[in-house]
Amino acid sequence: MEGLHERELRVLRGPRFAWWCLQGRQDRQGHAVRDLPAAARGRALNVRSSALPDFPWDLLEPAKAIAAAHSGGIVDLSVGTPVDSVPPAVRQALADSSDAPGYPLTAGSPALRAAITGWISRECHASGEFGVLPTIGSKELVAWLPTLLGVGPGDVVVIPAVCYPTYEVGAKLAGAEVVRSDSLTAVGPDPRVKLIWINSPSNPTGRVLPVEHLRKVVAWGRERGVIVVSDECYVSLGWESEPVSVLSDEVTGGDYSGVLAVHSLSKRSNLAGYRAGFVGGDPALVGELLAVRKHAGMIVPAPVQAAMVAALNDEAHVAEQRVRYAARRDMLRTALVKSGFEISHSEAGLYLWATRDEDCWATVDRLARRGILAAPGAFYGPSAAKHVRIALTATDERVATAADRLAEPFTD
Ligand SMILES: Cc1ncc(COP(=O)(O)O)c(C=O)c1O
Which cofactors does it use (predicted)? Predict the structure, then answer.
């Protein structure tokens, strides 16, 4: 625990596992959930999900049906799911490790820990002593991090005004309150704030936070004992500006106290199906995550750990994938601009953040009639209601088809 601020310690020691408390209450009353009458069972099982936002993707189904009815087939640019192959060396590493009868290490194999440490040092330009921990994907970590760190009811988690929806989900699973803000001044001196998420390059906007901004957030967090967590899963995809990790010497000067960076191999190495991520930063915070996870599990499977080692020790496949995305990005960007869209931010990451200065659902419908599915900005925050998010994750053929369709005049 050395190196933690007093308030961080209180967060870590504070009420944990609201879900566990609920289970405990039921157990003490002597009822297994399956023994409850249907209505009560429904109540017990709905407690968590009813605190969460509606699952937004269901709302996109009507537009998806319209796009799917296009004679040339749908071009689905609504989700950022990789479509290119897993690099052969990574698949080989997975296959070579498939005889894995024993439990893997929660902390990661020595080879994986060394690979993560080496990668963070090289790619994030971090020269100090940071902690590392592999995670099952990074969505899973984002969703459970506040809970794992002891953030709970009465606490506040600050998330970007327009952002990846799972930050809100994670705060709500922990029972905490969510404040959306990009401005530290607007957050003010609220002592309930325990954790702040930043995301650079951003999903959905593609915005990159400059070094000075990152420094300010870290300093602000340290002054208040607020844990700063930076989601950097698109860090290898800078186009018009170079993304900087919160762990870089330029930001932290090698002192990682109160700071964590979350990384993923999903986009960088086309490993979304493997569920491979990791977290690095403050050794005390990472140690606490490991201590909880030793009890709670969520262990990365041994073959996936071996695949991660192969992926992290090779940058050639990352460079090849970048070239594919750069070509798709150019084609889509040009076609969108020609057809009257304005592109905001989008200087990095896997998406084009586009607007026709109209309600995002009107744009989604227009595109759907052309057989193109985009994600409405409204999924990412109330202030994004006039944007749509266009993913670069489609095959070259589908991207070229989308560009052709965008060339037809937008008269409807
Ligand atoms: C900003 C951001 N963070 C985290 C994730 C989760 O990625 P994964 O769980 O595949 O590592 C995503 C996925 O799209 C994302 O956009």
Answer: pyridoxal 5'-phosphate
Residue 267 CA: nearest ligand 1 atom is 10
Distance CA 33, CA 19 (A): 13
Cβ of 139 below 6 Å from ligand 1: yes
Query: Is the pTM for the entire model greater than 0.85?
Result: yes
| Two structure tokens written together for 228 | 């700063």
What's the 141 CA to ligand 1 centre distance in angstroms? 10
Ligand 1 lined by 232 (C-beta under 6 Å): no
Tell me how far apart the alpha carbons of residues 265 and 278 are, in angstroms, rounded to a whole number: 9
So what CATH class is 99-313? Answer: alpha beta
Which tens digit of pLDDT belongs to each residue from 301-342? 999 999 999 999 999 999 999 999 999 999 999 999 999 999
Distance CA 147, CA 193 (A): 14
Give the Å distance between the CA of 233 and the centre of ligand 1.
6
Whether 233 is in the pocket of ligand 1, judged by its Cβ within 6 Å, is: yes
pLDDT value of residue 41: 52
Strands 193-199 and 227-231: what pairing? parallel
Strand positions, DSSP E, 239-281: 259-264, 276-281
Domain ranges of the chain: 16-48, 56-85+317-407, 99-313
Specify the pLDDT at position 248. 98
Please count the other Cβ atoms lying within 10 Å of the Cβ belonging to residue 38: 7
210: Cα separation from own chain's centroid: 19
CATH class of 56-85+317-407: alpha beta
For residue 71, report the distance from its CA to the centre of ligand 1, in Å: 32
